[in-house]
Amino acid sequence: MKLIALVIKQYDELFKEQIFNFSDEYKVDFNFETNELKIDKNPDYIENFYGRSVNNISLISGINGRGKSSILNMLVHYDVFQNKEAFIEDKIYCLVLKSETELYFEYVYNFFDSSKCSLYFDGELMTGFSTFMEGKNKGSIKSFIYNLESRDSRKNPNISSIILGFLQSRFKEKLKRYSVYNKNKNHQTIINRHFTEAYPSDIFETYQNLYKDGLIKSDLKLKLEIQLENIEEIFPYMKYEEYKNKTKAERFGEFAEFKEDFLEGLDLIEDESVREVWRTIHDLKKEQKLTTELDINRQKNFLIANIVYRYQEELPRLFLEFNKSFNKYLDDKNLSLKRKKRLFSEIAITMSTGETNLLLLISEIKRVLSNNISRDHYIILIDEIETGMHLEWSRSLINFLVNYINEINKIGGMNFQLIFTTHSPYMLSDIKPGNVIMLEKNQETGYSEGKVLQNTFAKNIQEIMKENLIDNIYGDFALAKINSMISRLNGEEEQAGDEEELSKEIHLISEPILRNKLLEMYDKKYDTSEFSIEKQLQKLNLNEEQRQQVRAMIEANISSANADK
Question: Where is the Endonuclease GajA/Old nuclease/RecF-like AAA domain (predicted)?
Answer without folding.
Answer: 55-427
